[in-house]
Amino acid sequence: MKTSIFLAAFVALLAGGCASTQTVKEAKGQGATRIYHHGYSTVYRATLSAAKAKGLEITENDRKARSLILTQGVTWKGLGEKVAVFITPVTRARTKVEVVSKPVMAPLNFQPDWQQALLDQIDAELRAKK
Q1: Domain range annotation of the chain
Q2: Which pTM does this prediction carry?
Q3: Which of 80, 86, 116, 119 is an S-S bond match for 98, by CB 3.0 to 4.6 Å?
Q4: Per-residue pLDDT tens over the stretch 22-61
Q5: Residue 77: which pLDDT band, with cuts at 50, 70 and 90?
């Protein structure tokens, strides 16, 4: 009986900490942001390249909504990560990128800081294009 109660509590804890595609989308406005001095299309392409360079899989690419959903699967560091990237033109020559990252299973995850890592990689991709 005690084992069943413990198991049910453990599963509830894990389920409560799980990220889904919807939860990372709903976290818009809560992530790390950076403004790039490049137009939207250039930053959008650099973001796709950055995701690939970091080994993230693109699971949703909605250019109309100006967002990407990226995932990292199970590694020795954790059970995966969901990353949402929101790309917003500020002016013709400036674009804001926001990155929101949430672990798939919060209590069992030791992933890198995807927000900083992805923004830094976008910087590198944009510098390489010059």
Answers
A1: 18-129
A2: 0.76
A3: 86
A4: 776 677 888 999 999 999 999 999 999 999 999 999 999 9
A5: low
Residues 6 or more apart whose Cβ sits within 8 Å of residue 61:
48, 68
Please choose, from the candidates 52, 102, 47, the residue with its C-alpha nearest in 3D space to the C-alpha of residue 79.
102
Pick the CATH number of 18-129 from 3.30.470.20, 3.40.50.300, 3.40.50.970, 3.30.530.50: 3.30.530.50
| β partners of residue 32 | 99
What is the residue type of 123? D
Pairing between strand 67-72 and 57-62? antiparallel
Cross-strand bridge partners of residue 102? 82
Q: How many CB atoms lie within 10 A of CB 17?
A: 15
Token pair recorded at residue 99: 């990155």
